[in-house]
Amino acid sequence: MQADFFAKKRRNSFIYFALLIFLTWGAITVTEYDVIKGFTSIPKAVEWTFSNFYPNEKAMTKLPDILKTLVETVLVSIAATTVAALFALLCAILGSNTTGINGIFSSFSRAVAALFRNIDVAAWSMILLFSFGQNVLTGYFALFFGTFGFLTRAFMESIDEVSQSSVEALRATGAGYFPIIFQSVIPASMPQLLSWILFMVETNIRHATLIGILTGTGIGFLFSLYYKSLNYSSASLVVIVIVAAILIIEYISNYVRRVIL
Question: Hey, CA dihedral for 197, 203, 206, 212, is it positive or negative?
Fold first, then answer.
């Protein structure tokens, strides 16, 4: 029996790798990609990066403007995440199996969450550009919609993981719907909800860079502006500042998670 199991596992692995190789070969053929040229160009790319893509003294004079734009981007990301979290919590409560009012509300909430979650923030940016143009509001709503869809699904799962014992105990005492929500469900799931919010803050700061390139705002636009004007030193400084900001925020987020969990 065990031999048959391992034989089946090896067969499935072989089929998977064979399919992967076939798809890779097909993609190379369709795109006419030169694999040898691609690998041999890596040393030249690395050499160019170390020769051109580094901040110099002139680029350092732009650091105040870069930091100011970075702060704006971070604040927009945090604002979009926190506001989306409030709407996501309401939608998750209605859609959760633990707190849902009825099947109609639950199905509707899950459908809305699936719709917003499966549209990437970059796609949201391009969609919203037609309505709001290239401004901060476009980036804000793109982050908001993407975050809303993801957090609604994550909050639903977190609420459904809450122990039913406390909910049933409150129902046995005659507690109404809202006391059960605010005295049992939300307090019990709050650490996990906060963890998801912190995760989305980190993610949205990364997404905001790409969105800025598309919407012409924030730190992403600044990088695009420097890069397209061949000011590689300033563009590299933008990259360094973004990476440093992400690492700092991730450290703070992990510390907060350790405290609340």
Answer: negative
Q: What is the pLDDT of residue 105?
A: 74
| Higher local confidence (pLDDT), 140 or 110 | 140
Q: Quick one: 6 and 111 in the same domain? A: no
One-letter amino acid at 25 equals W
Is the confidence at residue 117, as pLDDT, over 60?
A: yes
Report whether 52 contacts 232 (CB < 8 A).
yes
Range of the domain at 94: 57-260
Question: From CA 72, how far away is CA 79, in angstroms rounded?
Answer: 11
pLDDT at 1 over 60: no
C-alpha distance from residue 95 to each of 113, 224, 229 (Å): 9, 41, 49
Name the more confident of 233 and 45.
233
C-beta of residue 149 within 8 angstroms of C-beta of residue 119: yes
Contacts 24+ apart (CB under 8 A), 216-223: 216/134, 216/135, 217/134, 217/135, 217/136, 217/138, 217/139, 218/69, 218/72, 218/73, 218/76, 218/136, 218/139, 219/66, 219/69, 219/70, 219/72, 219/73, 220/73, 222/65, 222/66, 222/69
Question: Do 136 and 41 reside in the same domain of the chain?
Answer: no
